[in-house]
Inverse folding.
């Protein structure tokens, strides 16, 4: 599927080729059946894009967050679900690159790179009300082995992942907020699906609830407390890479609207179509989103861990998430108005239905209201 | 034990499963169950009680990780409030 020439391209260019040849052509079927995008993931693996962010000395390419965000954007042009899966995977990779496992050494990163492994996460839990900084389940340790049981309300592509990063209380008598992050590999993992994933959008992420039973070596527990991993890496990287998904979706909607206007203009040369002004407005909003998202990934590359964990940085990254998810809904809605019936139809070249449904998911996954409440709290501590 | 305003603030705002009087000065408050959300309220309570304002450089997890670390920060702020 991937030609030799493609393999030599930069990660973003490889993603561009895959988005046009495999991801977009399969996106409608993935959406209609709410199925895992197997073809797209196979192509991503073949192009060695799952390991791209791992340092070169461990078998990856050491791509920056800015470049990784670029890959996410390209994939999102074709299919938001595929791009979300890719972005969520890279968040887990970033945790492994920046935070050591108790066993030490880069052994697992080498495995991820060599096998193009797909990583997922299970941070939410049934019964904690959506606060990922609190766990009910706990790690139980016997000698050098751990056991962990967790009821997770949503585990994106859990069934198709090679490993899950799972949060839990450090030990059975730990407080709910005293959490660790545990790398649970497929060999020690049993997943029992306890519900379905029938949603309006982002259907290909396949995110039903699971009852998770995991066991493995204690060397697979992260050394640092989860609170630090979350503040320094998982929170900022999630928001920046997810926003890169929203940007790719917005770019796709913008391109559809632009092509539609140009087609109209060709039919009556000399007269600017009335919707063209709306396209100019859309271009303005799109430019805002480009600037916002690229600044976020560049900031990740420039800032150190302590800097990212500061309250002011967290507020900033929260703002990126809320602003980007609001803008993408506006932009897809604008594109729908511009394309009119062509965009509203589900069987035209300008169909925007899937993008519109996917776009609404962006405000809901980590609900914007929750994020604003978090920022309001953090702002009590921001000085200067 | 004599009165300890830091422990009073912790009992009022840290939402620990045990009283702060049951903890040693060096015990880790996060491991004892203080959330980052609760630590913000602890900070506000300390600022009110001691009439100080924590500068940016002290607004880190380590400052609020134990009664001893809080005491050190408060003593430093009272000694030289401007820095």
């Amino acid at each position: 599927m991937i030609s030799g020439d493609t393999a030599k391209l930069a990660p973003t260019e490889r993603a561009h080729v895959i988005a046009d040849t495999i991801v977009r052509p399969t996106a409608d079927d993935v959406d209609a059946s709410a199925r895992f995008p197997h073809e797209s993931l196979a192509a991503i693996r073949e192009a060695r894009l799952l390991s791209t962010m791992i340092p070169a000395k461990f078998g990856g390419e050491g791509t920056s967050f800015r470049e990784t965000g670029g890959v996410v954007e390209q994939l999102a042009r074709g299919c938001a679900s595929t791009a979300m899966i890719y972005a969520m995977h890279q968040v887990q990779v970033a945790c492994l690159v920046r935070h050591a496992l108790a066993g030490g050494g880069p052994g697992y990163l080498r495995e991820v790179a060599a096998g193009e492994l797909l990583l997922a996460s299970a941070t939410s839990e049934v019964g904690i009300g959506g606060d990922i900084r609190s766990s009910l389940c706990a790690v139980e340790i016997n000698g050098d082995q751990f056991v962990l049981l967790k009821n997770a309300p949503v585990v994106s592509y859990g069934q198709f992942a090679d490993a899950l990063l799972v949060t839990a209380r450090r030990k059975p008598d730990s407080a709910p907020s005293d959490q660790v992050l545990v790398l649970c590999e497929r060999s020690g993992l049993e997943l029992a699906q306890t519900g379905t994933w029938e949603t309006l959008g982002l259907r290909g992420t396949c995110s039903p609830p699971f009852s998770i039973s995991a066991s493995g070596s204690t060397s697979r527990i992260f050394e640092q407390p989860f609170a630090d991993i979350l503040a320094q890496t998982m929170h900022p990287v999630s928001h920046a890479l997810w926003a890169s998904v929203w940007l790719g979706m917005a770019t796709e909607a913008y391109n559809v609207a632009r092509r539609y206007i140009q087609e109209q203009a060709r039919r009556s040369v000399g007269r600017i179509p009335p919707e063209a002004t709306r396209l100019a407005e859309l271009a303005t909003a799109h430019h805002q989103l480009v600037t916002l998202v690229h600044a976020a990934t560049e900031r990740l590359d420039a800032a150190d861990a302590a800097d990212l964990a500061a309250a002011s940085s967290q507020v900033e990254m929260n703002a990126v998430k809320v602003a980007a998810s609001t803008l993408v809904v506006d932009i897809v809605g604008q594109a729908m108005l511009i394309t009119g019936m062509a965009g509203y139809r589900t069987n035209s070249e300008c169909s925007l239905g899937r993008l519109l449904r996917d776009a609404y998911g962006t405000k809901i996954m980590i609900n914007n209201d929750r994020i604003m409440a978090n920022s309001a709290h953090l702002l009590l501590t921001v000085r200067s | 034990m004599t009165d300890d305003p830091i422990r009073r603030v912790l009992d009022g705002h840290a939402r620990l499963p045990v009283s702060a009087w049951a903890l040693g000065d060096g015990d880790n408050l996060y491991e004892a169950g203080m959330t980052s959300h609760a630590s913000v309220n602890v900070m506000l309570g300390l600022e009110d009680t001691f009439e100080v304002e924590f500068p940016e450089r002290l607004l880190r997890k380590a400052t609020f990780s134990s009664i001893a670390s809080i005491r050190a920060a408060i003593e430093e702020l009272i000694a030289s409030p401007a820095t």
User: Anything to note?
Assistant: Chain A has three domains: 4-115, 119-224, 227-381. The domain at 227-381 of chain A is CATH 1.20.140.10 (Butyryl-CoA Dehydrogenase, subunit A; domain 3).
